[in-house]
Amino acid sequence: MAERKSIVNIEGLVEDLAPEDQAIFKRIFHVTSTVGELVPPPSMHPWIEKHFGSVEAVLKQRIIKITNLVTMEGALFNELRASRPMEAKDARDLEEAINAQKGGPFCRPLEGTPADVFGRVRGRHCITASNIAKYDGFHGLVIFENHNPLVFDVEEVKDYFDTALGWARAAHQMDPEARYFFLMWNCLWKSGASIIHGHIQLTLSKGMHYAKVEALRRAALAYRKEYGSDYFADLYRIHEALGLGWRDGNVRGMAYLTPIKEKEIILIASGMDDNLKEAVYRVLSRLTKELGVQSFNLALYMPPLAEAPEDWEGFPHLIRIVDRGEPFNRTADFGAMELYAASVIASDPFQVAAALR
Ligand SMILES: [Zn+2]
């Protein structure tokens, strides 16, 4: 029987898949569902009705726990949390806070930021700088011309990525041993950005890639050894079969079933071409303009710039984007659950996919 497309119905939706897709789903994901029950005193009823619509709505709560058996990422979804509507937020206070930081060092990068030892890479809408307090040997920045980090168009996003890759090549040329490139875009303070002005951070590492990237490489390799199949292709295949995936040219996108936090999107491509950059723009644009996302993290995983001793065959270019919540909410979105157990997620991947497909 066809069930409503919602994360709380994931078990039924998987049962509806073709047998081969079901088999792939089950070797990647483990799903458990349970029901949490409670007994509210009458004195709480008005408060519950105000926040959840009715008392009945909270008496029994369906909870879905999904574990990615390949990468050991995990997420917990609660029907109550997932049923909240996603809507655009009032952005006036935020714009005021962003404008108040105008005139800082990133507004005048040539005077306000250091250059790398190999100089600066200039884009049409951005320029690179060297990070003042480094966490790797090569640690740079792409500083956007636009002060407001939430204002960008497709040409600018393409230019940011091109400039970032130009920086990576320049750094690699200085030290050919440095071959593991990582790009991260932290937007606004909730995401860990310490400076409000729009920017992307870049590192080029050596010896081994960062732990989480290396863990994914090893997981995908182990998967190929065990099943003789490509992990990333299978991951996309089951997301698409469930209605959680979409194609944007040669880029495959999905609202991930074990997101690290809210509305996590994964884009998979075979290279950093215009198609991928444009797909990134389209996702960011929809998230920020239609789904009320104001603070986000974006990360790029890709194979090393030069031959490495370990096996990177089949490892794609992978973009991960996650919503970090409302900038003026003082509560952190990550607690002990996210850090040490599994992520607690309020956004339904089926709603996210429906908005992005
Ligand atoms: Zn600025």
Q: Would you identify the regions where 5 or more consecutive residues have pLDDT less than 50?
A: none
Strand order of the largest sheet: 4-5-7-6-11-12-10-9-8
Distinct small molecules bound, one entry per kind: zinc ion
* Multimer state: single chain
Overall, the morphology is globular
Largest sheet: 9 strands, antiparallel
Q: What is the CATH fold-level name of the largest domain? A: HIT family, subunit A
Number of domains: 2
Summing up helix and strand content along with how strands pair, one would put the structural category as alpha+beta
How are helices and strands ordered from N to C? HHEHHEEHHHEEHEEHHEEEHEEHEH
- The CATH class of the largest domain is Alpha Beta
Q: In percent, how helical is the residue content? A: 25-40%
% residues in beta strands = 15-25%
Instruction: Report the radius of gyration as a whole number of Å.
Output: 22 Å
Distance between the termini: 24 Å
Number of distinct beta strands: 13
Would you identify the CATH H-level superfamily of the largest domain?
HIT-like
Mean pLDDT across the residues is 95
Would you write up a description of this structure?
The protein is α+β, with helices and mostly antiparallel strands. It has 2 domains: about 5-85 and about 210-355, HIT family, subunit A (2-Layer Sandwich), CATH 3.30.428; about 90-205, HIT family, subunit A. It is built from 13 helices and 13 strands. The chain has helices spanning about 10-15, 20-30, 45-50, 55-60, 80, 90-100, 110, 155-175, 210-225, 230-240, 275-290, 335-340, 350-355; strands at about 30-35, 60-70, 75-80, 125-130, 140-145, 180-185, 200-205, 245-250, 250-255, 265-270, 295-300, 315-325, 345. The strands form 2 sheets. The protein has a 9-stranded antiparallel beta sheet. The protein has a 4-stranded mixed beta sheet with strand order 1-2-3-13. A hairpin with a 4-residue loop joins strand 2 and strand 3. Helix 8 packs across helix 11 (about 275-290). The longest helix has 21 residues, at about 155-175. The radius of gyration is 22 Å and the shape is globular. The structure holds zinc ion. Zinc ion binds near residues 106, 107, 147 and 197.
